[in-house]
Amino acid sequence: MTHVNYAARFPAARPRRLRQAEWTRRLVREHSLSRDDLIWALIVHDGAAARIPVSSMPGIERLNIDEAVKAAETARALGVPALAVFPHIDAAKKDNDGREATNPRGLVPQVVAAIKSAVPEVGLMVDVALDPFTDHGHDGVLREGVIVNDESVARLVEQALVLADAGADIIAPSDMMDGRIGAIRNALESAAKPDVLIMSYAAKYASAFYGPYRDAIGSAKALQGDKKTYQMDPANTDEALKEVALDIAEGADMVMVKPGLAYLDIIRRVKERFALPTFAFQVSGEYAMIKAAAQSGWIDEERAILETLTAFKRAGCDGIITYFAPRAAALIG
Ligand code: PBG
Fold this sequence. Notes:
The chain is of the alpha/beta class. It has one domain: Aldolase class I (TIM Barrel, Alpha-Beta Barrel). It is 38% helix and 18% strand. It has eleven helices and twelve strands. It has helices at residues 22-28, 65-78, 107-118, 149-166, 180-190, 211-216, 238-250, 264-274, 284-295, 301-315, 325-332; strands at residues 38-45, 51-53, 61-63, 82-88, 123-128, 141-143, 146-148, 170-173, 197-204, 254-258, 278-282, 319-322. The protein is globular. The chain binds ligand PBG.
């Protein structure tokens, strides 16, 4: 930041002069949101129904593979650069070790292959974590009440390779195990996949705002306990810088802060310190709050969408993962 000397005093200085009309507000606007900034978060499912509404996220539906391909076509038409897919898995396929996560014929690899063959120009990001696939709802391997780090990392590496093989463009580990970025990067290099991008969920907090998502992917009822031994304490900021530094050193191309709106200070510090592509996830709870208030007639939904997304840009984000992406892209025009 440059030093600003406000020498002028009222009435020489009248800040309202610059706000008097839309044309001058546009001229002096410091930050702008573009469709290029958006990654569309999509929920997919392995059932037959085309679309199943998610009750805690009005307007969001779990999509089957055909509908996910249509969504990718919509993304292309709207100019949204990338999609992030999150799976809802049939409870019968879940087990203690999340074995379905590494099934090459599983739901996510199928969705990835279908989208990449129909709409190759849209970037495709996939979550690496075991929680959609475990019967206990945790992101890693559970042994005697403990999420064991290194065994989890080995499973996550396998999952990442399966997803890269299916054609995923961006591997996004959301599990918060230590050392997973380096392990996945090494495995991708060994598998002759040097161009696969990694966006790490680098500073991911143990947050109340994931509630609706756990309902959307069907892990809410399953989750035993909480995720505080691996996700970050919401009270910490220096620790976020340590997490980001490690992930960059291990081979992340892009980093993410999650959730979004409650963590704008973290985004700002990360962007200033590392000057690398920095993203925020406007998570399910943030989506649900805006929807619920708008449905009650308490806030203007469209303005709230654009205002919150602009806040991420102002804080220093290069882009935002959001369930509002198609709405926002249409609103931006
Ligand atoms: C889990 C994962 C979560 C989200 C993305 N990946 C939730 C969690 O950590 O329990 C949250 C997304 C959202 O709330 O929209 N690996």
